[in-house]
Amino acid sequence: MLIIHDAAHIVIDATTERSADDAARLVVGPTMAAPDAPSPDASGPYGLVDSAGATGPVEHLDASGCVVTPGLVNAHHHLLQSAFRTLPGTRGVPMHVWLPTMAAAYAEIGIDPELARASALVGVAEGLLAGVTTVADHHLTWPAGSDTVGIARATADAARELGGRLAFVRGSARDDPEEAAASADAIAEALVPDARGGVSADGMFQLAVGPAGVHSDSEATFRLLGEVAARRGLRRRTQANEQVDVAIALEKYGKRPIALLEEWGWLAPDVTLAHLCAVTDEEIALLASRGVTATHAPGCDLPMGWGIAPVAALRAAGIPVGLGTSGGGSNDAGHLLADARLAMQVAPLAGPPIDARSILSMASEGSAIGLGRPELGHLRPGAAADLCVWDVSGVADAGVADPVAGLLWASPGRRPRHVVVGGRVVVRDYELVAHDQRALASDLTTLLATRRA
Ligand SMILES: [Zn+2]
């Protein structure tokens, strides 16, 4: 049993909070999964419980001077790009220049399970140290003849070693459609053979499928990956309406990406669309009527100049919106809270302002809804006990009247003091429990230097 005690404030979800006056503590213990969890024990052996029934040895986590929030869920990352940050020629360029520059860098280094492991260790560790307890890794780079099951397994093992949850998305970017589908099926068979909804029994690993977008993948790829998803109960994810996506769709098919996705059967409740820059009112209404979910990635789209999703309009239409960082090739940090701050700051340029609580909820429960994970992204009873303890006792938070607004508005680049995933402490006093972050960084640096030599 783990007791998080003496918190100054606890954010349970978008509408429920507790302050120091009303027993600001949380108890984590053996639990039954939430009744609507995707598999009977998806929340793992531990979750948030009523303190009355909790028994067994007790571990304490001091949260005095701290705000506790649900663990953040990064709904869109490309972990491999953690090895390819700030590359010359990748900043301030249009997407049609950026894509081949990144592809050349991947080819120079060589993408294989060893690099996937080193990048994922760095990317997942960086996320955990910033409060990201679940990350969706949209892996798009599968060189011909590569060991695709090995790449997926190496990424999954890296996350598991660190204690972070991973949703691995078997992506495609101009892959042969049949090969992409066969690979997705092989990965499912190897990693989650019997898992309903593609989620492992302990809830730590999830498999999904996702072409990069209509600009890169054909109707056949969408159809065949969709068939694997339907057969195996996997979620579907893709990217839509980033800069080149609309232009290429118009040029190639005479239609906009959303219209193509509708034709290809990819507007449905099991689909999450990342980016969604410059969607029209009619497109927003269509997305809402089809029950899709969305992911906002301002930390990538804004600095690259690729657009801003009209988040307030998407939410007003009833579309659940999550938050993602996208990858290191376009957003050099996997710091989701920093991007939550950016989302809040940029919102008035793309519609009405959005308040801090709503943005925080997008970065946790909003993202979890898109992954089909009702046990994640909140701290209600039965939740999987993924949480962050943020110290707000320093000068950067002095004078803050609203502790939740302050989490986002004050102290840019804030990191959590402690992070708990599934009831296990994985970051304690700002350091990883399972690995030395400096060793992970130097392993990746050495690997890259060896391959460039
Ligand atoms: Zn992306």
UniProtKB/TrEMBL annotation:
SUPFAM superfamilies: Composite domain of metallo-dependent hydrolases (SSF51338), Metallo-dependent hydrolases (SSF51556). Signal peptide: none annotated. GO terms for molecular function: hydrolase activity, acting on carbon-nitrogen (but not peptide) bonds. Residues 67-426 form the Amidohydrolase-related domain. The keyword Hydrolase applies. It comes from Herbiconiux ginsengi. Keywords: Hydrolase. It comes from the Bacteria. This is Cytosine/adenosine deaminase. Pfam families: Amidohydro_1.
